[in-house]
Input
Amino acid sequence: MAHDNGLTRLEERLKREMEELNLPARSWVSQTSQANKPDYDVIVIGGGMLGLSATAALLFQGITSVICLDRAEQGREGPWLNYARMPTLRTPKTAVGPALGVPALTFRAWFSAQYGAEAWNALDKIPTPMWMAYLCWYRKVLDLPVRNQTNVTDIAFCDNGLIAVSVRGSDAPLTARRVVIATGIDGLGQPALPPVSSKMSRKFYAHSSDMVNFEALQGKRVGVVGAGASAMDNAATALEAGASRVDLFVRRAQLPDIDKFSGISNEGLIVGYVGLPDEIKWKIMRSGYEFPVPAPRDSVLRVFRHANAHMRLDSPIVDAREHADGLIVRTPHGEVELDYLIFATGFACALDKRPELRRLAPLVRLWEDSFTPAAGEDCAGLAALPDLADDFSFKAKSPEHAAELSRVYAFSFDATLSHGKLTSGAPGLTEAAQRLARGIVSSLLRDDAKIILKQFEDYSRSELQGNEWSPEQVVTTAHTKETMP
Output
C-alpha cells in the first residue's frame, strides 16, 4: 500500500538536497537584443524519459529559458503506457535513471518512500506502469516546463542564427537558440518493416509500436515476426488476450541467448565510450547485429507457458498473399495461414522519412560519410546513423552548414553508435543528460563570449567599503628606510 505522507517527506528531503547542492543554478545566459530575442534559449522536442532528463539537466545548469514539447497528452508520453507491452522494465531496479546526482530523485527513493524498505528488497523488477508514474512525479516535483499535445512539424534555420520550430495548429513558429531532439527509440526514423509487408493490407498487420487492438485478436491466428524482447512481449499479449494460436517467425536457426553488452557493462563504458576510436565503436555496435540482445527469460517463459504458442526457427517470411479473411505467409519451410501479423522488427534511422527533419536530413553527416569499415564488417543499419559530436550535436556533411547543425542535438536512441548505450535505457541516463547539458552550456557561452567579456570589464562593484583599516595603518612612505620594532 502506498503512503502519501512518505512521498511528502521525500519531497521535503529533495528540497533540502537540492538546496545543499545549490540546484538549480542561478540563471546566467545572456539576453540578446530585443530584435533578435528568441522565444526560448532551448527547445526540447519530446517529453518522455529522455526529454524530461534533458530539460531537468539544463535547468540545473542555470539555463532557465527552456520548453519541452510532446505530442502526447500528459501522462502518456513515451512508450510505457502505449506500446511497451512488457509487465516490467528490463533495466535493473538499482539503475539511477534520470536522478542527475540527487539521491532523492531516484526511483528507489520514490518507491521506498511509499512502500518501505522491505518492499524495495522484495521487488524484483520495476513494473512498467510504475515507471511511468515515477516519471510523472519527476516532472511534477521538478516543475518541468512541458507543453503537451504539441506536435512539431518543421525545424528550420533562420537568417538571424535562431532555429524556428513549427507546431501543428500554430500560425507562427517558436524560435530558439538550440534545439534538442529527444524523441526516443524512433527519434530520427521510423518503424522498420520488411519489403514483404508491402504485399499486405494494413488491416492485416501492424508494427509492434502501433496501438494494436489485442482484444480483437481473441480467437484469431496471430503471427509475430522477430525473436527479441518486443516480439515476445507482443506474442504474450496476444496469447493473454485469447488468440487461438500464436506463431513466432524467427529468421535465425536458434534464439539469441547471449547479451554481449552485459559482459562490458560498467561505469567506464558509460563515461568513456564516446572517446573510443571509431573502429572500436563500430566493432562493438556491429556485434549488436551479429549477437542481438536476447529476450529476457521471463519474457520467453511468459510466451511458452501457453500450449498454443509455437516458434518457427529458420523461418523468415519470404512472401505473402491475402485471401478474404486473412493472410497466407510463406517461409522456406512452407505456408502458414494467419488472421493477423505483427512485425516486431525494430526501427530504422532515416532522417528523410521524418517530416519535421526534412530540411536537416540532406545536411547531416552520417557514419557512412565518415567511416569506412573493414572488409566484411559492413552494416547498413549502423551506416545510416548520424555521426554526432561529443555533445550530441549533429555534424555537417559540408562546412558551410557546420555552425547551424551544431545547434541541434540528437538526444535519442540513434546516438548509440557515437555515444554508446546512454540513450537506450535508464542506466546511463544521468551521464547522458549531464553531458548534453554541459555541451549546450559551452556552446551558449561561446556564442556569448564577447558579451561575457564586456560584463567582466564593466563590473565595478567594490568588495571593500573603505572602513576596513584606519588611516594610521596606511604606510605612504614606501621608499623611506624604517627600523622595524
Notes: Residues 429-447 form the longest helix (19 residues). The radius of gyration is 27 Å. The chain has a mean pLDDT of 93. The CA atoms of residues 49 and 231 lie 23 Å apart.
